[in-house]
């Protein structure tokens, strides 16, 4: 196994040496691709195209690509097949690119681990996506697929933040310890918010397949009750963020942290507005997609904020964390 890895390193060393800025771009591409696949997955769901390709890994039993079918409209096939192609060509490509970049640059071990998680998790997500199709879009499998994407966005955002840090720097606190604990607590609550949102969707009008909606497994629970639970968790999340922001404003905090917490509030406010409008307008498809995109933005910004609060920097300089504050 060691010999295989050494061979891999020798092959990677034939590539140009990427600068830190180039590595950041690769990491950003990996982050955006992880968010993109979640958004396109929501498009599949709200358009009822979940079984546009009714089998996996092929689109049909006897065809890798979509073929004319009376029972499956072509646009459902195109949307589902397109989502699969994004996973294969964009997510996989960006995941491999960041692995090659940080390996060639011989970055520290934690960066290498985060980078390798990208392609490995993408492979796992592909398997889970296949299970989702083969089980007929069971709500809990679809939900798990979505929540894994959320976790991947957090990890990709953390990788993006870590890549900007010097490997030989020192780990220092750049915000009050209490504020960091509150942000960590808010991340736990955010996970509950996302889970509650997933359950609301499982009971909502967007089943994921319109060719045979009666066959789709739906969660038979009161949507108003679920929405209330989701809203209360959002309120708790915002409350923890406000508390953390007060501590950040009053205590010794880096400029990067102060700027990032403002960005987090902006995306959270926009996401909350979309959620409210979505609820009172009957959950239109477009707003569902925007709500998923907003969720990915909140996750990414929160992850970067958390990392910036305890970052690896050159002592006496806030220059590294300021790269992420813009």
Automatic annotation (TrEMBL):
<keyword id="KW-0479">Metal-binding</keyword>
<keyword id="KW-1015">Disulfide bond</keyword>
<protein>
    <recommendedName>
        <fullName>Cytochrome oxidase assembly protein</fullName>
    </recommendedName>
</protein>
<feature type="transmembrane region" description="Helical">
    <location>
        <begin position="111"/>
        <end position="133"/>
    </location>
</feature>
<keyword id="KW-0350">Heme biosynthesis</keyword>
<dbReference type="GO" id="GO:0016491">
    <property type="term" value="F:oxidoreductase activity"/>
</dbReference>
<dbReference type="Pfam" id="PF02628">
    <property type="entry name" value="COX15-CtaA"/>
</dbReference>
<keyword id="KW-0408">Iron</keyword>
<feature type="transmembrane region" description="Helical">
    <location>
        <begin position="261"/>
        <end position="280"/>
    </location>
</feature>
<feature type="transmembrane region" description="Helical">
    <location>
        <begin position="26"/>
        <end position="48"/>
    </location>
</feature>
<keyword id="KW-0472">Membrane</keyword>
<feature type="transmembrane region" description="Helical">
    <location>
        <begin position="182"/>
        <end position="203"/>
    </location>
</feature>
<dbReference type="GO" id="GO:0046872">
    <property type="term" value="F:metal ion binding"/>
</dbReference>
<feature type="transmembrane region" description="Helical">
    <location>
        <begin position="86"/>
        <end position="104"/>
    </location>
</feature>
<keyword id="KW-0560">Oxidoreductase</keyword>
<dbReference type="GO" id="GO:0016020">
    <property type="term" value="C:membrane"/>
</dbReference>
<keyword id="KW-1003">Cell membrane</keyword>
<keyword id="KW-1133">Transmembrane helix</keyword>
<feature type="transmembrane region" description="Helical">
    <location>
        <begin position="286"/>
        <end position="309"/>
    </location>
</feature>
<dbReference type="GO" id="GO:0006784">
    <property type="term" value="P:heme A biosynthetic process"/>
</dbReference>
<dbReference type="InterPro" id="IPR050450">
    <property type="entry name" value="COX15/CtaA_HemeA_synthase"/>
</dbReference>
<dbReference type="InterPro" id="IPR003780">
    <property type="entry name" value="COX15/CtaA_fam"/>
</dbReference>
<comment type="pathway">
    <text>Porphyrin-containing compound metabolism.</text>
</comment>
<keyword id="KW-0812">Transmembrane</keyword>
<feature type="transmembrane region" description="Helical">
    <location>
        <begin position="139"/>
        <end position="161"/>
    </location>
</feature>
<feature type="transmembrane region" description="Helical">
    <location>
        <begin position="223"/>
        <end position="249"/>
    </location>
</feature>
């Amino acid at each position: 196994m060691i010999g295989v890895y050494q061979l891999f390193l020798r092959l990677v060393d034939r590539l140009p040496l990427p600068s830190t800025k180039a590595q950041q771009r690769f990491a950003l591409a990996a982050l955006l691709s992880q968010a993109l696949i979640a958004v396109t997955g929501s498009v599949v769901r709200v358009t009822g195209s979940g079984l546009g390709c009714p089998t996996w890994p092929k689109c049909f039993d006897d065809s890798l690509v979509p073929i004319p079918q009376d029972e499956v409209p072509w646009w459902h096939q195109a949307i589902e097949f397109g989502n699969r192609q994004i996973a294969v060509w964009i997510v996989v490509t960006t995941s491999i690119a960041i692995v090659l970049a940080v390996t060639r640059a011989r970055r520290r071990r934690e960066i290498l681990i985060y980078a390798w998680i990208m392609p490995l998790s993408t492979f796992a997500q592909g398997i889970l996506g296949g299970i989702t199709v083969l089980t007929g879009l069971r709500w809990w499998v679809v939900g798990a697929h979505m929540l894994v994407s959320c976790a991947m966005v957090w990890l990709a955002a953390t990788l993006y933040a870590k890549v900007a840090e010097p490997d030989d720097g020192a780990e220092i606190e750049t915000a009050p310890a209490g504020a960091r604990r509150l942000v960590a607590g808010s991340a736990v609550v955010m996970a509950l918010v996302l889970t509650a949102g997933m359950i609301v969707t499982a009971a909502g009008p967007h089943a994921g397949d319109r060719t045979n909606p009666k066959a789709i497994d739906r969660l038979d629970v009161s949507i108003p009750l679920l929405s209330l639970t989701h809203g209360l968790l959002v309120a708790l999340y915002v409350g923890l963020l406000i508390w953390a922001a007060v501590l950040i404003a009053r205590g010794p905090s880096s400029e990067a942290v102060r700027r990032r917490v403002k960005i987090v509030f902006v995306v959270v406010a926009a996401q909350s507005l979309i959620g409210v409008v979505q609820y009172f307008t009957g959950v239109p498809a477009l707003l569902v997609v925007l709500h998923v995109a907003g969720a990915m933005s909140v996750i990414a910004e929160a992850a970067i904020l958390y990392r910036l609060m305890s970052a690896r920097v050159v002592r006496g300089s806030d220059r590294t964390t300021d790269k992420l504050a813009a």
